[in-house]
Specification:
Helix content: 10-25%
Oligomer: single chain
Number of strands: 0
Distance between the termini: 45 Å
Order of helices and strands: HH
Strand content: under 5%
Shape: elongated
Radius of gyration: 18 Å
Length: 63
């Protein structure tokens, strides 16, 4: 149980740069990481041909 509250910087593979990124998201320990839920997502189900794209945001899929 104590491992859940171990600082995220001590997890193997988490260096200073990744630790800083996780801290900006409010993730300071393993418990925070397990309960982290993104605020939203981009729906990538709808695709449009590049020739049909107007102004604004779009998703591109390549092969």
């Amino acid at each position: 149980m104590d491992r859940l509250f171990e600082k995220i910087q001590f997890v193997k593979g988490v260096g200073p740069a990744r630790n800083k990124q996780l801290n900006r998201l409010g993730i300071y320990n393993i418990f925070d990481l397990l309960w982290f839920v993104p605020r939203g997502y981009f729906n990538q189900a709808n695709t449009t041909l590049i020739s049909q794209i107007g102004s604004g945001n779009c998703n591109l899929r390549g092969k």
